[in-house]
Amino acid sequence: MIQSFRDLQVYQESYELAVNVNKSILKLPEFEKFDLVSQLRRASKSIPANIAEGYAKRVSSKEFMKHLTIAIGSANEMEVHISLARDLNFWPKELADDLINKYQIVGRKLNKLIQNWKTF
To answer: The domain that contains 56 carries what CATH number?
Structure first.
């Protein structure tokens, strides 16, 4: 039974991804500190934060959907930033591809939540 945003599987997965990404950021070059690193930190944290905020406002379907849509946008943004880290040879291909796959899964789960939110 869902009693809190913390009970949502998509929240748990996006939070875990944010932690993993923020640990992996330490491997990026120092000169990317204010560019790619900043974007990765911001977008990765945006997903679980918007799920949590949207859940708190779920009495208004419009507000809930707004926050879940922002979370999907951030998941898509993460795919771009991770691809850049991979293609600039900052991160190993295996790490980047695994993260991209996980963000795609999170995006699909967010879409399903938008479609079926009244049933959870």
So the answer is: 1.20.1440.60
Q: Following DSSP, what letter does each residue of the chain receive, concatenated?
A: ---SGGG-HHHHHHHHHHHHHHHHGGGS-GGGTTTHHHHHHHHHHHHHHHHHHHHHTTTSHHHHHHHHHHHHHHHHHHHHHHHHHHHTTSS-HHHHHHHHHHHHHHHHHHHHHHHHGGG-
Confidence check: pLDDT of 119 > 70: no
If one counts the domains in the chain, the total is: 1
Structure tokens at 50: 């918007």
Residue 1 counted as domain residue: no
Domain that holds residue 75: 8-115
pLDDT band at 120 (very low <50, low <70, confident <90, very high): low
What is the pLDDT averaged over residues 63-74?
Answer: 96
- The answer to whether 46 and 58 have CB atoms below 8 angstroms apart is no
- For the CA atoms of 68, 72, 69, 13, the dihedral, rounded to the nearest 10 degrees, stands at 0
- The reported pLDDT for the residue numbered 2 is 85
